[in-house]
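### Sample
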Amino acid sequence: MAELLRLEGVHTHIGQYHILQGVDLVVPEGELTMLLGRNGAGKTTTLRTIMGMWRASAGELGLAGTDLRPLATPDIARLGVGYVPENMGVFAALTVRENMLLAARDGAMDESRLEWIFSLFPALKKFWGLPAGNLSGGQKQMLSIARAMIEPRRLILIDEPSKGLAPAIVDALIEAMRELKRTATTILMVEQNFRMAQALGDGVAVMDDGRVVHAGRMAELAADPALQARLLGLSLGAHQ
């Protein structure tokens, strides 16, 4: 498939720390690519570097031929890139509706798209007029993802959406992500829940020590316990 996002030799420094040490990554258009790796491997830094929140100190970073390195985060968002951070980024004092409105670039929400989102996350409709701080952890995660979905995006970056959530909520997120995939939205997702990774991933890249050390198809990694153990130190089968 055609590539949408490409990183070549990307380095990122945060203060005195050299976090990304030559990341090479290709995200095909219309696919969900999983970014896996142990804690501290550089996965979150990769997403934040793509989003312009942290600046790449070297390398090439392009979205469909557009150089992202000189762009500020709002400019990258205007190219059609959505971001769901690990901390969810929900405004607790604002209502669910107000949180969604802030994510709509023109200040208006398409009603048909909003109803589609409600079909995926019914709790958001139920608590539409209430402060987002009243939501449970799982509901806040749904709101965070829904904000990225309120408009069609070329690319959505999602950082550990299942972290700390109950299995039933994770299952609901998996179904919602499957629906989003059916719209041919390109997704790059960091995830530690390997059941979710296996259920959703088309492609996979594994990071270690600030570099991508493996890239391929998710199904191939899921079928190879020896490769899982070598790259991740565990077997996906132990996390079903």
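The longest strand covers residues 3-14. This sample (ABC transporter ATP-binding protein) is used throughout the tutorial notebook.
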